[in-house]
Here is the input.
Amino acid sequence: MRDGILIFAALLFGLASPNSASAHIASNGFLVLSVKGQEISGSMELSVRDAELAVGVDQNQDGKITWGELKAAEDSLTRYLEAHLSLSAQNRRCDLSFGEVRVNERVDGNYAWLPVKARCPAAVTDLSISYSVLNTIDPSHRGLLTLSGAGIVQSGVLGGEASRAAFAVFSPSRVRAFAEYLRAGVWHILSGFDHLLFLISLLLPAVLLRHRGQWEPVVQMRPALISVFKVVTAFTVAHSLTLSLAAFDIIRLPSRLTESVIAASIIVAALNNIFPLVTESRARIAFAFGLLHGFGFASVLADMGLPKGARLLSLVSFNLGIEAGQLAVVCAVMPVIYGLRSGAFYRRAVMPWGSAAIATLALVWLVQRAFLPTG
Here is the structure.
């Protein structure tokens, strides 16, 4: 049992460590390709921080990457991308080239944006993409693909185990679309530290009851499961609602505002574990802030795009992926904290100090997202 306590405490504090501060938003690359005959055109985007990991852009090692440094590293970055991205049509390699680097600003920072051109041996009908960007440096990195041809748009998630993917340009598979968006949803919730820490903040007190101003362990599993069911259901309903509204352009919020409020939601949920104002109705917190988390999920879906012919299917699939990832987290965390609930270390150290660490990290994110320029 003691080993279990130490492992869980290490995991909790590891997620909330300052080293995670720069990785609160998942590492994404954005590949946009348009097919016309033998020609492919589009763009590749890689965050400036990922470009630094890949080729060492920060020449003076001052922690700040200037336009001059990025421009000076253009040749190195181009060679790196040429070595880790390739296109093939009907199993025959296309000649790929990149244009001059520019900067595109997104909510999580600046991105190196490079035009992409490719000429294939024949008119492209079946396109194979090999994408191994950052595979050996950051295994969590993924490339979000938007592929279009003759007015047909489809999406994909590249990288990781799916380093090579094949697409029928003019006859996309609905089954493949469902699988791609499902995988994107699972990947997003499991790689998004902010969403994970919010969920964990709500799970930590699920195995405890507030009695006479003190946290006490639940006697049986049933009350803990009921508490978790209420919290997860409220969070799911809320973020599914706003995700759908945003995906269909009914309601949109500025990304900077959304990401800032998500950070604030983590602070509120974590501090409520230390200074409990809401105990039996934590589902209300989950629902209220779940509405904002839905807009955060929608930003990823917007980057991927919803194919016109399968918008509802893709939306449902992406949301199911989020729920599957969320369920995986609950199934991993609940048995551990239930087993640790009776120990004083859990109630006096893991709960308060783990929650404090989470709140502190979320405060850093809030300041970064709300007040500091992206970079």
Observations:
- Residues 1-11, 13-24 have pLDDT under 50 and may be disordered.
